[in-house]
Amino acid sequence: MMDLQDFEAEDLYFNATIDPEVTSLLEEAANLYPEAEAETLLLRAYFLAPEDLNVLVALYRYFYYQHRLRDALVVAHKAIAVSGKRLHLPEDWRHLTRLHLGQGVLVSMTLTRFYLMAHKGAGYLEMRLGELADAVGRLQTLVNIDSNDRLSVKTLLDLAQERLQEQRYTEMGNVVSLRSARA
């Protein structure tokens, strides 16, 4: 059985070789945060290295901390696509299985954890944005794969399910109210 906390020392995404110009842009953006100029620098870095996980994480954090959750979700999806491609995982999370992850771990355990944590982040953002069915589906997939809850997704899933249930009850109440008004 695969333990998502048990892995050998491997290079992490931020240890990868990165173009010096991109590094400079990221450092300058970090120094300028929260100024608007920081976003311009991050976007320039993205155009130079659109599949660099350092750039994607920096963009994600920038948008997240600016409370631009929709933009952060777009970047999370890009990070998932990039890392998933490197791991040879299905493009659609709905088709993700333990077998796929086992194959991904053979490529890189740390990149597999990054991929899963990016999905967790995307699920959280979907929940915050009211995309509750997507959030529940994505988070349920992670819980199914990580039966020991080593990524601590179960609590987040429970919250998303609770909010989805509340949303459905509210929608049902609105339908009942509409029917009553018509009668």
How does this structure look, described?
By secondary structure, this protein is mostly helical. The protein has a single domain, classed as Tetratricopeptide repeat domain (Serine Threonine Protein Phosphatase 5, Tetratricopeptide repeat, Alpha Horseshoe). It has eight helices and no strands. The chain starts with 19 loop residues before the first helix and ends with a helix.
Summed up, what is this model?
By secondary structure, this protein is mostly helical. The protein has eight helices and no strands. The protein has one domain: Tetratricopeptide repeat domain (Serine Threonine Protein Phosphatase 5, Tetratricopeptide repeat, Alpha Horseshoe), CATH 1.25.40.
For this structure, what is the CATH class?
Mainly Alpha
Total helices: the number is: 8
CATH architecture: Alpha Horseshoe
Could you give the count of β-strands? 0
Describe the sheet with the most strands: none
Number of domains: 1
Mean pLDDT across all residues, rounded? 89
CATH H-level superfamily: Tetratricopeptide repeat domain
- The CATH topology is given as Serine Threonine Protein Phosphatase 5, Tetratricopeptide repeat
**Percentage of helical residues?**
over 70%
List the helices and strands and how they pair.
Elements (H helix, E strand, L loop, with lengths): L19 H13 L3 H13 L4 H13 L3 H19 L10 H10 L1 H20 L3 H14 L8 H29 L1
Helix pairs in contact: 1-2, 2-3, 3-4, 4-6, 5-6, 6-7, 7-8
Considering the chains and any ligands shown, give keywords for the structure.
single chain, 183 residues, mainly alpha, Serine Threonine Protein Phosphatase 5, Tetratricopeptide repeat, 8 helices, 72% helix, disordered N terminus
